[in-house]
Write a structure and sequence with these properties.
There is one protein chain. By secondary structure, this protein is an alpha/beta fold. The protein is 24% helix and 21% strand. α3 packs parallel to α4. The chain binds pyrazine-2-carboxylic acid and zinc ion.
């Protein structure tokens, strides 16, 4: 795998690094906590280069359609303004981070950070041509964000060591990575760089 080499025109997309998606959370992703350190390395790298950083968050109302009481697939998670919806306190998000909230109305779900948000427009406003994607979960919100990024015409780089899968069915995460590669997303490693 090639090593990440951020360039002008790149932005970092940090997907849903929220308490409820970490082990012990309402919808904890197995080993999700292992991505905090590599995501922090990415934040430091993009911050030091002055490149845009976007953090998405799942931001559901308490009666969201994706929750089991309403026939959805998931237990209640990431309810807006609750501790479970907060970003991990271990995440070093710089003050200039652009925040994107998604799926914040009762009857609309969105795995992709592009769906129902201003993400594509705000990236274009900043001259972004390529997005570097990391976070949770590989087989849901990361996958769907990558699909939409490609559809919107962005080049995409993914950082597998900085993402983890729910793996409802074993292999979902690996299949998601293969699907992303099939769409032209380029996997990279963080390599031995200092940050
Ligand atoms: C997600 C399941 C439900 C995710 C969000 O961020 O991957 N997964 N809502
Ligand atoms: Zn959700």
């Amino acid at each position: 795998m090639v090593t990440l080499q951020p360039l002008p025109g790149d932005a970092l997309l940090v997907i849903d690094m929220q308490v409820d998606f970490l082990p012990g959370g309402a919808l904890g992703v197995p080993r999700g906590d292992e991505v905090i350190a590599p995501v922090n390395r990415l934040l430091a790298l993009f911050g030091s280069l002055g490149l845009p950083i976007v953090a998405s968050r799942d931001w559901h109302p308490a009666n969201h359609c994706s929750f089991t009481p309403r026939g959805g697939p998931w237990p209640a998670h990431c309810v807006a303004d609750t501790p479970g919806a907060a970003f991990s306190s271990e995440l070093d998000l710089p003050p200039a981070t652009v925040l994107v909230s998604k799926a914040d109305t009762a009857d609309f779900d969105a795995y992709s950070a592009f769906k129902g948000t201003q993400l594509a427009a705000l990236l274009r406003e900043r001259g972004v041509r390529r997005v570097v994607v990391c976070g949770l979960a590989t087989d849901y919100c990361v996958l769907n964000t990558v699909i939409d990024a490609r559809t919107e015409g962005f080049e995409v780089v993914v950082v597998p060591e900085a993402m983890r899968a729910v793996d409802v069915t074993p292999g979902d995460g690996e299949r998601a990575l293969a699907q992303m590669a099939g769409l032209g997303a380029v996997p990279v490693s963080l390599g031995e760089r200092r940050i």
